[in-house]
Specification:
The complex is a heterodimer of chains A (about 1150) and B (about 575).
Chain A lengths: L19 H10 L4 E7 L5 H11 L2 E11 L4 H8 L17 E8 L2 H16 L10 H6 L4 E4 L6 H25 L4 E5 L5 H17 L3 E3 L11 H11 L4 H4 L14 H7 L4 H13 L22 H17 L4 H20 L3 H16 L5 E3 L6 H5 L28 E6 L2 H14 L4 E9 L2 H11 L4 H10 L12 H7 L7 H13 L3 E13 L10 E3 L6 E6 H6 L4 E7 H17 L13 H8 L12 H10 L4 H10 L2 H5 L3 H8 L13 H4 L9 H12 L3 H13 L3 H17 L4 H14 L6 H20 L1 H10 L8 H10 L3 E3 L11 E4 L11 E4 L10 H13 L5 H7 L5 H9 L19 H15 L13 H7 L6 H12 L3 H5 L15 H12 L12 H6 L2 E2 L12 E12 L8 E7 L2 E7 L1 H6 L1 H6 L2 E11 L2 E11 L14
Parallel strand pairs in A: 1-2, 4-5, 5-6, 8-13, 9-12, 14-16, 17-18, 20-22
Antiparallel strand pairs in A: 2-3, 3-4, 7-8, 9-10, 10-13, 11-12, 15-16, 18-19, 18-21, 19-20, 21-22
Helix pairs in contact in A: 1-2, 6-7, 8-17, 12-13, 12-14, 17-18, 17-20, 22-33, 22-34, 23-33, 25-33, 29-30, 33-34, 34-35, 37-41, 38-41
Chain B lengths: L15 E5 L3 H9 L7 E6 L6 E5 L1 H5 L8 H5 L4 E5 L2 H16 L5 E5 L2 E5 L4 H4 L2 H14 L5 E5 L2 H10 L3 E3 L5 H5 L13 H13 L4 H5 L3 H20 L15 E11 L2 H21 L3 E11 L21 H6 L2 E12 L2 H14 L6 E11 L16 H15 L6 E4 L8 E4 L13 H5 L5 E4 L23 E11 L1 E5 L2 E6 L8 E14 L7 E11 L4 E9 L5 E7 L1
Parallel strand pairs in B: 2-4, 7-8
Antiparallel strand pairs in B: 1-6, 1-7, 2-3, 5-6, 9-12, 10-11, 10-12, 13-14, 15-16, 16-22, 17-18, 18-19, 19-20, 20-21, 21-22
Classes of the chains: A alpha/beta (about 1150), B alpha+beta (about 575).
């Protein structure tokens, strides 16, 4: 028997080529009862290794290869000699950098804690990917660890290569001294290398002379020999070489695969004790992750209180606030529910967790940071009372078991939504401060190879030129729906690469093989783990790339698998929008809006929702949502909860949407499957829409307990184990059978559970989101300027590009002013509108912020604002001199988008008194080309030249460009003092098309007329209808629509249908493209900016779309409009 | 444009013509295949499998083919003809263009490979009025297989811009330059896309300057304040108001001698006599111009259809090939001698040519000899007083040529070790001692000299010697050298009970016998991403020979299954 005790997984990041699960699978196939995973400087892959091994009934030993500094005296000699090598050049062998890798195996929990602390110490003091522990640290943390003498990079090989056998013997003696003679094994590997065999002879001699045991290992880097190729590619990537230039950095052969006990016995036939010792050592390694010793922190409570009593008291206080004015029935139900929940919390010893989350929420409230619990926590009345969530679980009859259940044996999961950006960072820093640097950390986010990165890095390693790599990467489809043609094969062909060529074939194979392997470790956006005492004894900690952040070596799934409680502090763009809107409303209108006390029945909100006029609103702005809103006709808050939940893959795949809508419109009778389910399904008209309903169905129809029902959902959803699922399904059916539910109803119930168990929303979660959706709708309806400014200041977020948001706001009567260095702040702001506009219903205008000038750095933008506050800029030259941060390209962009037009103006007539000749020329241009033909839209930027002539603007854009070019040219000290010459430029003002191009290039949008407005007459001649006309055209009519494509979708649930949103100056029209039409016009539909769609108008219950029969490109503008394509 | 002397024209008395060949790489290929002119043609560049479109003709452009597309992308385009880019054909086309223009005027400047400017001074009495000259020029180029644009103007730059911008024949009368050029896009000013030109183009685009007339209309001083002298120069170009001296192409220095023979030559001896004479003439010409040569090109025209009476009787003759069909196929035979240093010694040249022809016989009777020398400046070297003398280059060349004629050309030179696990991964480089000769050798060559020995630093034996490698003890004085067999010796190996038992060598009886012990296998493999991937196992074996025990390195090619002895240990 042989046990592999030295292997690396792909979590050694570019040093191993197999996932831990694959190693375990190979181990099980070889009938090996145990295996050890020793990843480089970490235990990154250990949780997955542990979970896979548990499933395969294999013992998973934990350990790591830890980088160490060479022991003195070699260390001093080597490090001095190779000081230059120690710099980041990874192609220099470790031993030349004065380091080696020490394989350490964990034999006890103390050993594991020591290993974690050792790695943490090393990681936290060095840059990413660097660092080494010193001899002293090894001594401090040696207990419970067993040391091997390592392979090519190990201590024995390093000292042997440098100082010969005596130094090597001395090094091994030192290791024996550090770890104890019983805890060191002299490691032998046989990969059929001459040099390695020579080293083995030395190792045997040293082991015999020091009476230390020998240990055979294979230094595994991949599960099967075939994966050596990937390992070579990783080596090339690691050393920033190509395969062709990596030379002897690559492996000599393919022997580092997981070998069978028989193979290893044959290899070490002359040293049977080295094989036997593997079994003996394995039996000594008692530690597994079952014995992790994690404990959630205790919340400090006043003397005389326990955490439970303190929690009870806080809940009672909250109860008064939340339910104080509720009906007595609700109060008694709530009291009952809270008591039930508190009992369970006490039983599961979780009061500390609730108190810590409560404390976080309290901190947010005190600091005026918007916070709202989401997810299943909203099913808890305790969470509602504590102010963690905003949804009343009792009145909404939400299922508590979905959140917490005794049977499930899992920790609860409370996710908090916070405004993204600085506010969330403040909350994170609060947690760090409160629980100490080693007590709290972010969870990791393992970055894995996906199509794009795979094709790029594999191609690079094979030596392909960047242009080819760009083509392959660009050809990687980003559509959600993938048809049969959408394979790697086709992507290669799309990029113009012939897979019949062997080298390209190899490229293709490597791209496929590397999929899903980890590349490096990132930081999860919001997951935090905290621990009682030292978190660094549970998992090694690393510095994150963001200063002041610490990250654990495991991702959130790993943490959950190992029972570590995490708090998700999620940054939600819309929370930041709400917060910013409130501030803008306060500053500009002097009004205080309290989101908790918004009227729940605002008619403007519901009227807007019913018209699907929801661009910019949270969760209900997508095309799919918009196509549902006119049919659902929301009238109450609960309708929004349904609306949020219904457009999800679960209900769509489970074909729940149409039955629900038909029943809602009274076109289909309500059917509850079984009378006993009526209470469960009544409010969703007999159609299960929420996860809780599934759980309740199982409880009512098949007598499941809450925990069992949750287990059923997970089993159905993840489809992890066919056997487990079958077992639960059988229990479900037998339960339903005993309750007298018909076979037909049983089938329907099983279908609905299995179809959207995973992809449906919990009702509580939908309710939390619906609150935010309602708030966003309310603000948009009543404070459009503030809401739009906040939306623009928090981009990127949501479904639409800023250009669409601006156009939508303009259609709703908001006056949007262009960027102006004399007025714009860095962020978008509100201004009192100076000009009254016929279409403007409000006197408030939105001024675009400097942040929308592409390429303008924030420090330069802020410097403009700062200098302007001191004194207005009298000329462009003055601006250039006073804001030296501005680069030439930034000034050019500002000039090109018209942001410098009013520099030096100060509301005075044209400062330099343009000559008659220039003005005449401008006038002539206006009459010929500037004025868009037949446009009803009149907006500020349109009349830039007219404004220039009227004296409102000092310059036109090309005047500014002309001046910028002179101002930035260093004329030298001799000419520097020369007075500024006449600022008239000989350049022609931009025509509307040029301004459009400049606007889109410089800001990604235009505040002037929509590009389509300039071509309306031509469009009408072509028979193209406006988007706003479609509601007046009868269903079934053949017509044409045309405009800018702002969104292309190919949802995974839509069987290859493509949905286009096409915007013109009057609104957005929708087009549906059938799969065959898409195939025929793939390139056009995927890339054209302006399209004409010809087809049949469909108007069903005011949901309007055009079923495309023909598509063709429209020539409108050269401006680079963009669309949101792969949602 | 920088560095050229420009001045604003005051009077126009001179005219210049410019001939420009659009899609030059395509036109160069069409000269050889004119039947493709009516088809869509794309010229590809790059190595397989990553060839990309380098140039296209108008038909292909209309079919949607553009520069930069990959071969696979355009393969679907029906009726499209693909050709690889041919630099020799482009060079030939350029030479033709020069010939064409030089047949009109002696003062000709090659502005680019596709653009030639010629001075028309004094041509009107010979060829008629300017439009007629321009048309004649275009017709002449067309007769030579190149479709071109021709323009005539009062200065070379205007003529060049007009030829690039207007198709067909254009004649710009005096004083009409700015007016005529005005309609051209500003892009014509920028022949090569450099970073600077891209920057200027972007500035013009921002300013709304699209045509040359827009640029011409800008005020000079203000333009100079913004774009400096570059801007002024571009504006002068746009106005057609520049002038410069033509830089005429000098007739190439051609050193070539040709002899046509009345009777075909069969023997090398008379050939050597003739070659000697030609070499003396060439060297005398070179010497007269104070030049030497570093490259000799010998071109022998062979008799067609000749077949030897006795194919084996080639000793001392010009080397009749073993296969007559080869002789029939050949029409000319070319050899090029490249020398490491410039030389001018006819005797050395003759010897080198003789040695080369001995190693590479022409294979058929010779009817014409053409010998050309590439002129270079002669070597002016003086070695250091205290440095060891380097070998005379002439003698060294002769010695190397002699060795090469015996062992083969690819087997002479300096070794360069390759960074690879592939055993004996090296390539040969031409031997050229550094000047002055340095006693330090290249580290890679110092590691393994070309003697064919290899230090086997790990000395151990699996079965008999359990002692540690001396190198690991720091006692590296004991080394085993591996003497490599080139080529390796193929053998058969008998295996008993999974162990190597016996080797048999059909070619060398001394290399066979019972395997007494073996260490290995030592396994290696690599280059798996290439067609030439390799994988092998090695053993170090002791074989009981007839008299004593021999140590060999035994190798099995794991891909081909072949067994061979790679070398013997001293």
């Amino acid at each position: 028997m042989y046990i592999e005790l030295h292997s690396r997984s792909a979590f050694s990041f570019l040093e191993g080529a197999s996932l831990p699960e694959n190693l375990v699978e190979a181990c099980a196939n070889l009938n090996m009862p145990a295996m050890a995973l020793l990843d480089r400087d970490g235990v990154y892959g250990s949780p997955r290794f542990h979970m896979a091994a548990k499933k395969a009934r294999i013992k998973a030993h934990i350990g790591a290869e830890v980088t160490c500094e060479l022991f003195s005296p070699q260390r001093h000699r080597d490090t001095e000699k190779n000081k230059n090598h120690k710099a980041k050049d990874s192609s220099v062998p470790l031993c030349l950098r004065g380091e080696f890798r020490l394989p350490l195996l964990v034999s006890s929990r103390l050993g594991y804690q020591n290993l974690c602390r050792l790695i943490t110490k090393m990681k936290l003091r060095s840059a990413k990917g660097e660092g080494a522990v010193c001899e002293e640290e090894l001594r401090q943390h040696a207990t419970g660890l067993i040391c091997l003498t390592g392979d090519d990079n190990g201590p024995l090989a390093s000292t042997l290569a440098h100082g010969g056998i005596e130094e090597a013997r001395h090094c091994v003696e030192q290791l024996a001294n550090i770890f104890g003679r019983d805890n060191i094994y002299v490691e032998l590997q046989r990969h059929f290398h001459r040099e390695q065999e020579a080293r083995n002879h030395a190792a045997i001699e040293i082991a015999r002379s020091l009476q230390l045991p020998l240990l055979a290992t294979n230094g595994v880097c991949y599960a099967t020999a075939r994966e050596r190729e990937l390992c070579d590619v990783f080596t090339a990537i690691r050393h920033k070489r190509t395969l062709a230039t990596a030379g002897r950095l690559l492996a000599r052969n393919s022997e580092r695969y997981l070998k069978s006990p028989q193979e290893m016995q044959a290899l070490f036939a002359d040293l049977p004790e080295a094989i036997a010792n593997t079994v003996e050592l394995s039996s000594r390694l008692a530690f597994t992750f079952k014995d992790l010793g994690y404990e959630f922190p205790k919340y400090p409570v006043p003397e005389g209180e326990t955490m439970m009593s303190f929690l009870r008291e806080r809940t009672r206080e909250g109860f008064q606030q939340r339910y104080g004015r509720a009906s007595s029935d609700l109060q008694s139900r709530a009291r009952c529910q809270i008591e039930r929940e508190l009992k369970l919390i006490e039983k599961l010893a979780l009061p500390g967790y609730f108190l810590i989350v409560w404390d976080l929420v309290r901190f947010c409230r005190e600091e005026n940071i918007l916070v709202q619990g989401r997810g299943s926590a909203a099913n808890s009345a305790v969470c509602y009372s504590l102010g963690i969530t905003a949804v009343d679980a009792v009145s909404m009859e939400l299922l508590f078991e979905r959140f917490l259940s005794e049977e499930r044996g899992e920790w609860p999961d409370i996710d908090l939504d916070l405004p993204s950006g600085d506010q969330r960072e403040r909350v994170i820093q609060y947690l760090y401060k409160r629980y100490g640097e080693r007590g709290a950390a972010m969870t990791a986010n393992v970055i894995t190879y996906r199509s794009r990165m795979a094709s790029r890095e594999m191609g690079k390693a094979l030596g392909f030129d960047p242009e080819t790599l760009d083509k392959v990467s660009a050809a990687v489809s980003t559509w959600e729906y993938r048809d049969d043609n959408d394979t790697f094969d086709h992507r290669f062909r799309d990029a113009g690469l012939d897979l019949n060529h062997p080298r390209l074939r190899k490229y293709f194979e490597l791209c496929v093989a590397v999929q899903d392997l980890p590349r490096h470790l990132g930081q999860h956006s919001g997951g935090m783990v905290i621990c009682q005492g030292q978190l660094d004894s549970i998992v090694p900690l690393e510095p994150a790339s963001m200063p002041g952040r610490v990250v654990v070596q495991w991702d959130k799934e790993d943490c959950a698998d190992l029972g570590i409680i995490k708090v998700d502090l999620l940054g939600l763009g819309m929370m930041a929008v709400l917060e910013d809107s409130l501030k803008l409303i306060h500053d500009h209108h002097g009004e205080e809006v309290n989101l908790a006390h918004l009227p729940s029945d605002d008619p403007a909100v519901y009227s807007t929702l019913q018209k699907a006029d929801t661009i910019g609103m949270f969760q209900i702005e997508s095309r799919a949502q918009m196509s549902c809103l006119p049919r659902l006709q929301p009238k109450y808050f609960y309708d929004i909860v349904v609306q949020v939940a219904i457009i999800r893959p679960g209900p769509i795949v489970g074909q729940m949407v149409n039955p629900y809508l038909r029943r809602r419109m009274g076109r289909e009778p309500v059917n509850h499957l079984h009378p006993s389910l009526e209470p469960v399904l009544a409010r969703t008209l007999g159609v299960p829409l929420f996860q809780e309903q599934l759980l309740r169905i199982a409880m009512v129809a098949a007598n499941f307990t809450g925990g069992e029902a949750e287990e059923l959902r997970r089993a159905m959803g993840f489809k992890r184990s066919q056997a487990r699922m079958k077992d639960i399904e059988a229990r479900l059916r037998s339960g339903m059978e005993s309750n007298g539910i018909s076979r037909e109803a049983q089938e329907q119930i099983v279908l609905s559970i299995s179809s959207f168990a995973l992809y449906g929303f919990p009702e509580s979660h939908a309710a939390s989101f619906a609150l935010i959706a309602y708030a966003s709708a309310y603000l948009k309806c009543h404070y459009l300027a503030a809401f739009t400014a906040a939306l623009l200041n928090n981009q990127p977020m949501g479904f639409y590009r800023p250009a669409t948001l601006v156009k939508d706001a303009q259609r709703h009567g908001l006056k949007v002013l262009p960027i102006d260095v004399t007025k714009s702040e860095w962020q978008c702001t509100l201004e009192r509108s100076a000009l009254s506009n016929q279409q403007s219903t409000s006197s408030t205008a939105l001024r675009l912020g400097l942040r929308y000038a592409r390429g303008l750095r924030e420090d330069a933008g802020q410097a403009i604002v700062l200098q302007r506050a001191i004194a207005p800029f009298v000329s462009i030259r003055d601006l250039v001199h006073r804001v030296p941060e501005l680069r030439k390209d930034e000034l050019n962009t500002l000039a090109e988008i018209g942001a410098l037009n009013s520099v030096g103006n100060s509301n005075s007539p044209r400062r330099h008194g343009g000559t008659e000749k220039t003005d005449k020329r401008n006038k002539k241009n206006i009459s010929i080309s500037v004025k868009p033909p037949d446009t009803s839209v009149s907006e500020p930027a349109l009349s830039e030249v007219e404004g220039c002539l009227r004296g409102e603007l000092a310059l036109h854009r090309r005047d500014a460009l002309w001046q910028v070019e002179r101002a930035v040219r260093n004329s030298g000290p001799l000419l520097d003092e020369l007075p500024e010459p006449d600022t008239n430029s000989p350049l022609h003002p931009m025509n509307p098309e040029e301004r459009l191009v400049a606007d889109f290039r410089g800001t990604g949008m235009t505040v002037g007329p929509h590009p389509m407005a300039y071509h309306r007459a031509r469009m009408e001649a072509m028979g193209i209808h406006k988007a706003s006309d479609l509601s007046r055209i009868p269903d079934g009519q053949h017509l044409r629509i045309g405009g800018c494509v702002i969104c292309r979708q190919r949802p995974g649930t839509a069987k290859g249908f493509v949905f286009l949103s096409i915007e013109d100056e009057t609104g957005v029209a929708n087009a549906i493209v059938m799969p065959d039409l898409f195939q025929k016009n793939r390139l056009l539909l995927s890339s054209a900016q302006f399209l004409m769609v010809e087809g049949i108008l469909q108007n069903q219950d005011n949901v309007i779309s055009v079923k495309a029969e023909r598509v063709s490109p429209l020539s409108i503008t050269r401006a680079e409009t963009s669309s949101h394509d792969f949602y | 444009m920088k560095g050229l002397t420009h001045r604003v024209i005051e009077s126009m008395s001179q005219y210049f013509a410019c001939i420009f060949v659009p899609d030059f790489p395509v036109e160069a290929l069409l000269r050889a295949e004119p039947e493709l002119r009516s088809r869509s043609l794309a010229v590809l560049e790059g190595k397989a499998p990553l060839q990309k479109v380098f140039a296209v003709n108008e038909n292909a452009r209309r079919a949607g083919v553009s520069q930069g597309m990959t071969k696979l992308q355009i393969e679907a385009c029906s009726g499209l003809v693909l050709r690889a880019r041919s630099l020799p054909q482009e060079a030939a086309a350029h030479a033709v263009l020069l010939d064409c223009t030089q047949s009109f005027s002696p003062r000709v400047e090659a502005v680019g490979c596709d653009t030639i400017v010629l001075d028309l001074a004094g041509l009107q009495p010979l060829f008629g009025p300017l439009p007629k000259i321009a048309r004649a020029l275009a017709r002449r180029a067309s007769d030579l297989g190149l479709e071109s644009n021709v323009s005539v103007a009062g200065n070379p730059e205007t003529a060049t811009l007009a030829a690039r911008g207007f198709s067909g024949v254009t004649v710009i009368p005096e004083g009409k330059e700015a007016e005529q050029l005005g309609s051209l896009p500003v892009e014509v000013l920028f022949e090569n896309s450099t970073q600077e030109s891209a920057h200027l183009l972007e500035t013009f685009s921002r300013w709304g300057i699209r045509k040359l007339r827009d640029l011409a209309a800008l005020p000079d001083v203000a333009l100079s304040e913004r774009l400096g002298q570059d801007g002024i120069l571009l504006q002068a170009l746009a106005r057609g108001a520049t002038s410069r001296t033509l830089v005429p192409v000098e007739p190439p220095l051609i050193f070539e001698e040709v002899v046509e023979l009345e009777y075909p030559l069969v023997l090398l001896e008379p050939l050597a006599f003739l070659l000697g004479r030609l070499l003396e003439q060439l060297c005398a010409r070179l010497e007269a111009r104070a030049l030497a040569t570093q490259e000799l090109r010998l071109s022998l025209e062979l008799e067609n259809g000749w077949q030897p009476e006795d194919p084996s009787a080639n000793n001392g003759e010009t080397g009749v090939p073993a296969r007559p069909s080869r002789a029939q196929a050949r029409q000319s035979f070319q050899r090029t001698l490249r020398l490491p240093v410039p030389l001018l010694d006819p005797k050395t040249f003759l010897k080198l040519l003789q040695l080369d022809l001995k190693a590479h016989p022409p294979g058929a009777p010779i009817v014409k000899i053409r010998l050309a020398a590439e002129p270079v400046r002669p070597r002016a070297a003086q070695n250091g007083l205290f440095l060891p003398p380097a070998p005379e280059p002439e003698k060294l060349e002769l010695t190397l040529a002699r060795i090469a004629s015996i062992v083969g050309e690819d087997k002479v030179g300096s070794l360069e070790l390759l960074d690879t696990h592939r055993p004996q991964g090296f390539r040969m480089q031409r031997f050229a001692p550094s000047e002055p000769f340095s006693p330090q050798r290249h580290p890679s060559t110092a590691l393994r000299a070309g003697s064919g020995t290899e230090k086997n630093s790990s000395h151990f034996s699996v079965q008999k010697n359990s002692s540690v490698s001396p190198c690991l003890r720091g006692e590296c004085d004991l080394v085993t050298a591996l003497r490599i067999f080139r080529p390796p010796v193929d053998i058969a190996v008998a295996i008993q009970d999974g162990k190597l038992a016996h080797i048999t060598c059909p070619r060398n009886k001394a290399m066979q016998g019972e395997i007494l012990w073996a260490a290995g296998p030592w396994r290696s493999s690599g280059d798996w991403w290439e067609k030439e991937g390799w994988a092998r196992d090695e053993w170090d074996i002791a074989v009981q020979g007839e008299s004593d025990i021999a140590l060999y390195r035994l190798v099995r090619d794991r891909l081909g299954g072949r067994w061979f002895l790679e070398g013997t240990y001293d």
